[in-house]
## 1
Amino acid sequence: EAGVAQSPRYKIIEKRQSVAFWCNPISGHATLYWYQQILGQGPKLLIQFQNNGVVDDSQLPKDRFSAERLKGVDSTLKIQPAKLEDSAVYLCASTSKGVGRGELFFGEGSRLTVL
Amino acid sequence: AQSVSQHNHHVILSEAASLELGCNYSYGGTVNLFWYVQYPGQHLQLLLKYFSGDPLVKGIKGFEAEFIKSKFSFNLRKPSVQWSDTAEYFCAVEGTGGSYIPTFGRGTSLIVHP
């Protein structure tokens, strides 16, 4: 079974530039999450999708971050404009169990460095 | 809102030593509990989980965890660690009374010396 795919693995940009990350979850997984993991901290949820609908985006900085999940499969997370404090690893995870009770399957992450 | 505290941020052990990593959570209702592990250069993966039933759960590679409801704790244990257990360990909690948002602790870095 193929795992969660993310790209790019690494991205370096200057502040005020924009960046987009892509995630392809495990086939058939209806629930998809984006997490932000700053160095030395645990993953922090940014947004949670169930199929192509948003379940929770209360911690997403909506003035600069946006995310979509068209057709309930792939998802894109965008940052525009980027700030220095956005330097982090952006993790995508999916689960087959719907909301709750499910093991999360993580991708390898996209490491963003903002200069 | 739920929160998770992992008290040991860095742990260094010698092979064959016993391990216990602390995890406490804050949430007013029923929870699902998880431990995830991230080996060097790899993605996060599930070590073990607790939903209900026997509060002592066993996971992969000889790890176990005990849910103590009165202490809001879910500590991870292993009687004898190996060099290959060197990794980051994350405790996570999911409150079942709302939108089931998995919340993670800040993690514990474990280094096992051969």
Note: Chain B touches chain A at residues 4, 6, 32, 34, 36, 42-46, 49, 51, 90, 94, 96, 99-107 (CB under 8 Å).
## 2
Amino acid sequence: DIQMTQSPSSLSASVGDRVTITCRASQSISSYLNWYQQKPGKAPKLLIYAASSLQSGVPSRFSGSRSGTDFTLTISSLQPEDFATYYCQQSSSTPYTFGQGTKLEIK
Amino acid sequence: EVQLVESGGGLVQPGGSLRLSCAASGFTFSNYEMNWVRQAPGKGLEWVSYISSSGSTIYYVDSVKGRFTISRDNAKNSLYLQMNSLRAEDSAVYYCASTTRMDVWGQGTTVTVSS
């Protein structure tokens, strides 16, 4: 199985900050990497697919990148509605594993 | 509006069975592969199962193989998850989600396995 190691597990930041979350795959997954945002009591929401493609309707302050098996989600300027938990997920091969999540909290 | 609506969750005793349903609307369901994903209380997301658009290709996470069965009825725009021999560790919110990039999710249905 492909392991997805996400860091950090939690992060405190302020409105307006630039934030980066990373995810490392245990083997090559090409660009089959998706990022989701989840708020308490709600279903996850797709933000980024194929490592760097912005899902329709998602603000442009969210971006994704890839370097080998390392993937990054960047929020360029945090907004109040961005405080949530973020997950990466590989869709290269089953089981489609998720990272353990990053909880983004208000500083 | 593109929508997925899960149903069928509830409280069941260990060893019992449940059948979850996911009703799709607002898109051509028969064209899209589907997944079930679960989230135990206070925990992260876990992919459970995948089914291709025609139903001919199916995958499961190891922990549910032989106990859970995914299926779909494209004429009824519906996805199902038959869960047998349920264990306490199967307790979770179960979501259906469309395509491998999971761009549309339902609101979830809660399964609690407890005596």
Note: The mean pLDDT of chain A is 97.
